[in-house]
């Protein structure tokens, strides 16, 4: 907790030299000057405390746009944040996010994005020591993997009022696909399965 204006006034008054040129009466010009200086010093002291709060992405207010700009937010893949608390939460995730390429990393990323219970399936090509009934896959499957999202997300079905060129059904979350495509290993092929 910072010092108050009264604290600063007492400290400044104690620094004055002794003598008739430096009166100690509150109505004197010297004491009024000290009081005005003390108010400003107390205001600056309070702003320093605010600066400490602005240094943490979980409590920032004034510097939130600067923090977001530094860490590439708002993300093009996500819908705009609904309020300051959501913006702070996304910023904190981005600041503390270390990244990774393991299945555990992507499962935790999906969980943080609001997709709990997701699993990842990695495809492996047929090898000489594979089981006899193992599927024979193309060589490109070595780099393919699938995210299994347990609930169907944003399922749209054609209605009577729909246009004739609309698909009969569509599903998926374009934001999720965008994020996973952005952070997946570059040499891999990503599939997303909804309602698995």
Automatic annotation (TrEMBL):
InterPro entries xref list: Phage_Mu_Gp48
UniProt-listed Pfam families: Phage_Mu_Gp48
Domain of life assignment: Bacteria
Protein name per the record: DUF2313 domain-containing protein
Species for this entry: Noviherbaspirillum cavernae
